[in-house]
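Hello forum,

I keep getting stuck at the same step: I have a sequence, I want structure tokens, and every attempt I make locally crashes halfway through. Rather than fight my setup again tonight, could one of you with a working pipeline run this one for me? It's a single chain of 204 residues.
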Amino acid sequence: MSNATPALVLASSSRSRRALLDRLQLPYQCSSPDIDETPQKGETPHQLVHRLALSKANAVADHFNDHLIIGSDQVAVFEGDILGKPHTIERAELNLRRFSGQRVTFLTGLALLDTRHQSHRVHVEPFEVVFRQLSGEEISRYVNKEQPLDSAGSFRMEGLGIALFERLEGRDPNALMGLPLIALCNMLRQAGLDPLGANLHQGD
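Reply #2:
Ran it on my machine without issues. Output:
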């Protein structure tokens, strides 16, 4: 990697986000942010994921002053409710019972903070999921098998969660797993880090 290529940091401890970022074959470090994810009064879902994605990147910025830092956050939006991580089996099952046969919107906030120039870019990627009609037994079996307690929407699309859906609608299915890679590639190119850059993989 040349000196002109900025170093990359993922502000997350999420295994799924790491797996997604690995697909770009770029060297990076991970740093876990510690922020309050509680929605603010009157905050829209779009505003919430925008703020939290940037807050996660900013939360680790003091340790990386010559880097590009990726922050991301996701919520599900259904019947006017903002749904984050369920944290409990009971809440996960309740969410999936509500979603059965319904369309649910997911919003993923993506931030790229450039600490070299004290600048940032933020993008919010929408994605919609149409759930099958799910029986209580299917829901219980799924939640107990996969324990999707730290996933917005109470499922993991990269695993057995795909069996819950009738169809998916959106530009980038990676967004549903927590990191919109199409938007991220665009941001990285704008910041001078092209995943297909000729200088990135020399010596591999």
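The beta strands are 7-10, 29-30, 67-78, 81-83, 103-114, 119-131, 165-169. If your local run keeps crashing, start a new thread with the error log.
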